[in-house]
Amino acid sequence: MVVDENGTALDFSAQSHSPERSTRPEIGTLAHVDECEVIADDGTRIWATAVGTGKPVLLCHGGPGLWDMFDGLPDALARRHRLIRWDQRGGGRSDRVGPYTMARTIADLDAVRRHFGAATTALLGHSWGATVALHYALAHPDRVDALVYVAGTGLGDGWREEFHRNLAERHTGGFDGTRESAISLWSADFADRERARESAEAMATPWFEVGREAGAALNAESRAWSEADLVARCRELRVPTLIVDGADDVRPRWAVDSLAAALPVVDRVVLPAGHLPWVEQPAAFSRAVLAHLA
Fold first, then answer.
1. Which residue in 36, 72, 174, 292 has a CA-CA distance of 20 to 30 Å to 2?
2. 155-176 confidence digits (pLDDT tens)
3. Interhelix angle for 212-223 vs 102-115, to 10°?
4. Bridging pattern class, strands 33-39 and 45-51
């Protein structure tokens, strides 16, 4: 259910509470264009590509230290918008050269925007990428038309203990950096337990070495942020924002409550899905996002 800033309830959820059946990667049926290297202002090479036509939507993937995993986004989005995808520095096909800071990540994102000629853009960020997109909007609100905040973890750091408890119910064992261990770990991110491994294998294709240095540095920085300061800054952010949650995400959704309460122009939708709602609820996800971007 979406609740807008006026308290009006809008229902974008699917009729069934069972995850929709979809074939990944759906977006692969559309030809990719403009695959390139964006050169950041410090000379670092940032991998990027674009697909679709229409107003731009710049996608920010999760991590930190991972890479673009948006192959499963429904084709419906690319039929109406130009989707710009990139690998954040320190992971995937981009250079693994620091510094690994949020300020540097924002500068890289801005370089991607400029490369594709977008004076302004919508942003869609997932998980850690939702944090990146939010911080970019706070730094450059005049360059952001709309924000879609998907399966983020909010403004504070208190969610981690419950997350680890929830994760332990679905996953035992650690992560040793291999693709197989990542598939095992990422399987916990899906509500449909029968298809969880299949969906996690799609996440891990293509596979790149996880950028542990970038992940460690950015996670450490984020733990030092003040929730009160971020709440105050978000209260001043007029960018229209859609928060998309998966009801069965192992990351507790209450973590996002302070963000939802602080933003002046915000809708929120909760779908019957896990951490990647566009995979398990592609039609409902598309309806909510396209309505927000219209």
1. 72
2. 999 999 999 999 999 998 888 9
3. 120
4. antiparallel
